[in-house]
Design brief:
This protein is an alpha+beta fold. About 35% of the residues lie in helices and about 20% in strands. It has a four-stranded antiparallel beta sheet with strand order 1-2-4-3, with helices on both faces. The protein is globular.
C-alpha cells in the first residue's frame, strides 16, 4: 500500500469526531513483519496481522469515552482505506500488556484497536462472498420508510 494512502487513512482518523473534541488518540503505524507477527501473538484470532501490508494501532489516554472515540476513529480509517480498495480488519489485543511491551506503549495509555490493512484477495473480499460467509445484506432489506 503506497505511503500516500496510509497518510490518507491516518488523516481520516485524525479528523474523527470525539467527545468534547478531546482527540484522545495516538497512532502507531506498524510495517515491520517481525512486529506484526509479535502483535499477532498478543491476541486471539489475529493471524490476519501476519499477512497485513501494515497495521495501525490506536492508543488512547485512560479517559472516559476514549474507547467510544477510538471506535469512531477506527471506522473512519477503515472507510477511508476501503475508498482506495484497501481492506481492513480489527484485531483485539487479548493480552494487552504483552502488546504494550512489543510497541513500547507507556503504562498510562491503553491499546484500543489494532487494525490490519492490505489489498484483499477475491476470496477475502466480503462483497464477493456468499451471504452466509460475510457478504453484506442488501440495503433494501434494512430500510423502512416512515414506519416499520
Amino acid at each position: 500500500v503506497p505511503d500516500e494512502i496510509i497518510r490518507r487513512v491516518l488523516k481520516a482518523g485524525r479528523w474523527s469526531g470525539s467527545s468534547k473534541n478531546t482527540q484522545p488518540w495516538q497512532f502507531i503505524v506498524v510495517k515491520n513483519r517481525d512486529t506484526l507477527n509479535a502483535l499477532a501473538d498478543c491476541g486471539n484470532y489475529t493471524d490476519h496481522l501476519r499477512r497485513a501490508n501494515f497495521a495501525i494501532v490506536i492508543v488512547t489516554e485512560k479517559a472516559r469515552r476514549a474507547e467510544y472515540d477510538a471506535g469512531r476513529c477506527s471506522q473512519n480509517m477503515m472507510l477511508a482505506a476501503w475508498n482506495d480498495s484497501v481492506g481492513s480488519c480489527i484485531a483485539s489485543m487479548h493480552r494487552e500488556e504483552d502488546a504494550k511491551r512489543v510497541l513500547g506503549v507507556p503504562d498510562d495509555f491503553e491499546i484500543q484497536q489494532v487494525i490490519s490493512f492490505g489489498y484483499p484477495t477475491a476470496q477475502a473480499n466480503p462483497l464477493q462472498r456468499p451471504p452466509r460467509q460475510g457478504a453484506r445484506k442488501p440495503l433494501e432489506e434494512m430500510i423502512h420508510e416512515e414506519k416499520w
